[in-house]
Amino acid sequence: MKKLCVIGDPIDHSLSPIIQNAMIGAAGLDFAYGACRVLGEETAQWLTRAKTEGYTGFNATMPHKQALVKLADELSNDAARIGAVNTVCIRGGRVYGHNTDGEGFLRALREADMEPAGKTVLVLGAGGAARAVVYKLIEAGAAHVVVANRTVARAEQLCGEFAAAACDFAADTLASYAARSDLVVNCTNLGMTGVANQFADLSFLERLPAHAGVFDLIYSPRRTALLERAEQLGLQISNGLGMLIWQGVYALEHFAGEELDEAALAAAARAALEELE
User: Which end of the chain has the smaller Cβ count within 10 Å, N or C?
Assistant: First the structure.
């Protein structure tokens, strides 16, 4: 049986073992997937251990995604452009780094009927998740992407790498850009379970056109205050559960080294998550 796992710190909250083992069972693969707590300064040591202990690969969450970029022997185009690795395959002693977050986001976005091609998109936040989102939005043909962040310099740095514009997080600024947007994507942790901070002002949602969509990368809780208010306004909404599932599907395909029945895998993952509720 081939060994897989997810590494991170903390890691006890991760749903990856539940999702991956459900999909592994559905695909009939000879894999076993666990979770390993690995401290931020131990990424390189873990990689050596993974090779020694015969791991086929592993997923990585914070704080390892950036460190793995420099440790991989080869990077996929997405991993290189996003500057983060969330999926590692070990073959013949070589380390192959992938990033399935962006592709998972795009699949979930389209599954929610929020096709970004030709659209104007307001992205909230400028962290690692926003990098993946902005890159894939532009790759998918979004007409205009604006990144709003409290620290404007950080948004400007991100936008300097991609064809996007930066702005601050002030309520009137968000309202101004919302009025011209077809889609809002929240890449901050505002509203996440266990996080005290919330959006101070959601009035910018009232400026969105009636056809606009609001996509929140957060999946716990399933309905954030952002999504609840957007729904009250009659806007199309989606949380980050689909992204979580699809990035896992693509990761498993990398581990298996072949295309799998993606619909069956996603269905198995959703069923496993529903049992937790």
Answer: C
Which residues make beta-bridge pairs with 184? 122, 214
pTM: 0.94
Q: Which residues are catalytic?
A: 65
| Integer-rounded Cα radius of gyration of the chain | 19
Cα–Cα distance, 213 to 41 (Å, whole number) = 39
Instruction: Tell how far CA 255 is from the center of its chain.
Output: 18
pLDDT at 149: 97
pLDDT in tens, 116-139: 999 999 999 999 899 999 999 999
Neighbours of 162 (CB within 10 A): 15
Report whether 213 contacts 237 (CB < 8 A).
yes
Place of tokens 């509203």: 191
Alpha-helical (H) ranges within the chain are 16-27, 43-52, 67-71, 77-82, 101-111, 128-139, 152-161, 171-178, 225-232, 241-256, 262-274
Q: Which amino acid is at 197?
A: N
Measured distance CA(100)–CA(210) in Å, rounded: 31
For residues 207-241, b (16+ Cβ closer than 10 Å) or e, as one string? bbeeebbbbbbbbeeeebebbebbeebebbbbbbb
Per-residue pLDDT at 123 = 98
User: Are 271 and 23 within 8 A, CB to CB?
Assistant: no
The count of other CB atoms within 10 Å of the CB of residue 9 is 16
Compute CA 270 distance to the chain's CA centroid, rounded to the nearest angstrom. Answer: 17
Structural domains of the chain in order of their starting residue, each with its CATH number: 2-99+242-274 (3.40.50.10860), 103-239 (3.40.50.720)
Average pLDDT, the chain: 96
Determine the 3-state secondary structure of 198 from DSSP: coil
Q: Which two tokens stand for residue 234?
A: 């009659």
Can you say how many angstroms the Cα of residue 171 is from the centroid of all Cα atoms in its chain?
25
